[in-house]
Amino acid sequence: QVQLVESGGGLVQPGGSLRLSCQASRNMLVTDVLGWYRQVPEKEREWVATSRSGNEETYADSVKGRFTISRDTAKNTFYLQMNSLTPEDTAVYYCSFRPTFPPTLYWGRGTQVTVSS
């Protein structure tokens, strides 16, 4: 079973930046599907970004142009670079990982991001 550990969350002022990391307990391949989601209490989890094979990265409209998802297969780690943060970005951020085989979806436990002055 794959375990995912997020890190990099914290408190940041509006306009600031954070870089979230998600480390997997197994080898990561370039064909594995990686994702980031976020959730505010009492609200549904929101999709943020996905990285697929073939240099395909997609983003939610709310973060497009500000967030970037990337991976480092040598470290079994992937990232979410978040720039120009606003209070609306405040949420618990979760990473997801779907190995090429078997295609089972795994989730991290989440890391809190708070954007406030």
Give a concise summary.
It is built from no helices and 11 strands.
> Helix coverage percent of residues?
under 10%
Spans where pLDDT lies below 50 across 5 or more residues: none
**Rg for CA atoms:** 14 Å
Span between N and C termini? Answer: 40 Å
For the sheet with most strands, the description reads: 7 strands, mixed
Mean pLDDT: 95
Gross geometry: globular
Question: Can you walk me through this structure?
Answer:
- The protein is mainly beta and 117 residues long.
- Helix content is 0%, strand content 50%.
- It contains no helices and eleven strands.
- It has strands at 4-7, 10-12, 18-24, 33-39, 46-52, 56-59, 67-72, 77-82, 91-98, 106-107, 111-115.
- Strands 2, 4, 5, 6, 9, 10 and 11 form a seven-stranded mixed sheet that branches. Strands 1-3-8-7 form a four-stranded antiparallel sheet, with no helix packed on it.
- The mean pLDDT is 95.
